[in-house]
Design brief:
This protein is of the alpha+beta class. Helices cover about 30% and strands about 35% of the residues. The protein has helices at about 20-30, 30-35, 125-155; strands spanning about 10-15, 40, 50-55, 65-75, 75-80, 100-110, 110-120.
Amino acid sequence: MKLPIEQDRIEKQIELKAPIARVWRALTDHREFGKWFRVNLEGPFVAGQTSRGQITYPGHEYLKWEAVVQKMEPERLFSFTWHPYAVDSQKDYSKEPSTLVEFRLEQKGDGTLLTVTESGFSKLPADRRLEAFRMNDGGWTEQMKNIERHVQQTS
């Protein structure tokens, strides 16, 4: 079953009351990203390299984080690929297609318009495609609130 185009991609936007440089740091400094995203990353993000870590979100601490950093265009675009909603610790997701997550930043008055897009759900195995889409759609809604709180509470 093929997903309708509106279910192949998730897109969320938020206007943050913080300069682009601040939002960029929250996205691309692995320690800051880890605080608001709730993951303990092993090291810095580097384009072309795999980022690994341990999820710290309550109830999901058994999950590993793994994403391949695609692009880091300062204060404009940060992107990575990963296996969405990979929550079964007994399953090897490495053979599945991944989705692309893009964080785009734009100046908006004194603040920053942050757009997060995750695309490629239609390539996922049919037995988990809709659930991965549904769970990540809700997850990105929550993560937008998390980054908003993070950039407002820290400088």
